[in-house]
Known about the structure:
The protein is mainly α. It is built from 5 helices and 2 strands. The chain has a two-stranded antiparallel sheet with strand order 1-2. It is globular and about 40 Å long. Residues about 110-125 have low confidence and may be disordered.
Amino acid sequence: MRGVVPEPHTGWTFLTNHARVLAAIADDPDSRIRDIAAHCRLTERAVQKIISDLERGGYLSHTRRGRSNTYRIEPGVPLRHPAEAEAGVTVANLLSALARHDAQRSQNPTDEVSEQPQPQAQPSLTS
Length: 127
């Protein structure tokens, strides 16, 4: 993740910036804010605010080591949306799903998401 700056993105996305930052930290708990910002295509200030939000919410903590931080994710904390919280979806569930997706992408880097599922045959209503 270090030093790689992805191309800019515009438009809406399925994951929030908070989820992106949390996933980046899960990938490397010793990441610098600068590296997280580059990876997530955010400003360093935005990443600092998101980390602060995640810490206040109990999702994340950090330990100071010299001039850098090591982050610790609290995997058992339920996600904030009421539907997810009621279903018992935790940070660990989210990160696990993202990790599986990343693993599948790295195994099949030429596969495109644009492949559409084949329609299922419909039963005939005529006799």
